[in-house]
Amino acid sequence: MKQIRTVLIAMSALTVAVAATAFFFAGPQAMLAALGGGSSQIVAVLAYGWIVRSKGIPAPKEMLAKHFLGEIVKIMLALALMVVGFYLSGANVAWFAGAFLAALAAYWLVLILK
């Protein structure tokens, strides 16, 4: 859970940075699109963390099953939120995609560096 918390903090920080940049360069609508893009990844990782959590030490088979279920839910949720976000972002789809990719990059960087 500590690693998921670290990932969420990094994803949130990059999402806020992209949203602030979007606000500075393109206005409040772009900022909202960027917040939506990053938040879609954050929600997906939160769902993963909720699925894989367990009390005590689970059996290896149970741990693997939870991990695969969590990954499937995370990917499907991220894709669904991305499609909805692209639809709702309109002219600010680039800011949505930028924050989405920044949050995704933070996810992978934290996991690689840990």
TrEMBL record:
It holds the Pfam family ATP-synt_I. It is found in: Cell membrane. Keywords: Cell membrane, Membrane, Transmembrane, Transmembrane helix. The chain crosses the membrane at residues 7-26, 32-51, 72-88, 94-113. Its main location: membrane. It comes from the Bacteria. It is a multi-pass membrane protein. This is ATP synthase subunit I. It comes from Chitinimonas lacunae.
